[in-house]
Amino acid sequence: MTADDTTLTHLRLERPAEGVAVLTLDNPEQRNAMSDEMTSSWVRAVDALAGDSTVRAVVVTGEGSAFSSGGQLDWLASEPDASVDRLRGRMMPFYRAWLSIRRLEVPTIAAINGPAIGAGLCLALACDLRVAARGAKMGVPFLKLGLHPGMAGTFLLPDAVGPAVARDLFLTGRLVEGDEALRLGLVSRVLESDGFREQAVAVAAEVAATAPVAAKLTKAALRDGGHGSFDHALQWEALAQPVTLATADLQEGIRAVQERRSPRFEGR
Q1: In a 3-state reduction of DSSP, which class is residue 136?
Q2: What is the DSSP string of 215-245?
Q3: What's the average model confidence in pLDDT over 113-129?
Q4: CA 236, 239, 241: angle at the middle one, nearest 5?
Q5: Which Gene3D superfamilies is this protein grouped with (predicted)?
């Protein structure tokens, strides 16, 4: 799939730097709400990226002033008389479609350019890293709509910020931004709004420049809060580190240090 692929609706896939792919939610008139067309395009794009060995980091961002306002309200309210089973049958495919970003082996970065609300923030939480533009608002105000949280938010948010902060954000529905979001651990960096996209791509390029095998194994090690115990971590590392010791990239990395240059990793 290429940047000029015409099969995508409300979504763009671009390759702005070596090893970096950018998925842009592109429905700014509706603040990048997750339309049916966008959802279908998202699944196809993630499938394409999963099969592309040249991709080493993926950025998710929004077009215009918002990252994503989440699910479309008219879609959520479209079947007031439907049974719980019928509604569950609608929601589960929606969740699985958007959370498919988690099956990518390469590191993923949510570049939160503007408001990330509800399911929009859950999408950002499904990524490995989150960077935000200064002033971008984030929150999970599901309860203010009379709605239980969805899209694995009750797992993803506590994993990012801890259970006490997650309770605060869910039960009050309040929005946070900037330094508070950084302090809470909701994001790892706050970047200036001017040139935000370029700065986010630069972060992804840093990730893409690391050794691919080591990056994938490290992502796996840190997934879902990391290992269940100290001993599990040691057992994993005693296997994963020798895997990387056996790679050509390890030899290249050592030569690069000795020769005082940047390494050129090939993923082997």
Answers
A1: coil
A2: HHHHHHHHGGGS-SSHHHHHHHHHHHHHHHH
A3: 98
A4: 95
A5: 2-enoyl-CoA Hydratase, Chain A, domain 1, Lyase 2-enoyl-coa Hydratase, Chain A, domain 2
Element (H, E) at 175: none
Tell which CATH architecture fits domain 11-208. Answer: Alpha-Beta Complex (3.90)
Domain residue ranges of the chain, discontinuous segments joined by +: 11-208, 212-259
Burial per residue of 177-203, b for 16 or more beta-carbon CB atoms within 10 angstroms, e otherwise: bbeebbebebbeebbeeeebbebbbeb
Please report the pLDDT score of residue 4 as a whole number.
42
Composition of the chain by helix, strand, coil, percent to 5? 50, 15, 35
- Find the helix packing angle between 230-245 and 248-259, rounded to 10°: 80
Lookup: tokens for 71: 């699910």
Which residue is listed with tokens 């608002």?
137
Q: What is the DSSP letter of 261?
A: S
The overall pTM is greater than 0.85:
yes
Instruction: Report the range of poorest mean pLDDT among 66-70, 84-88, 133-137.
Output: 84-88
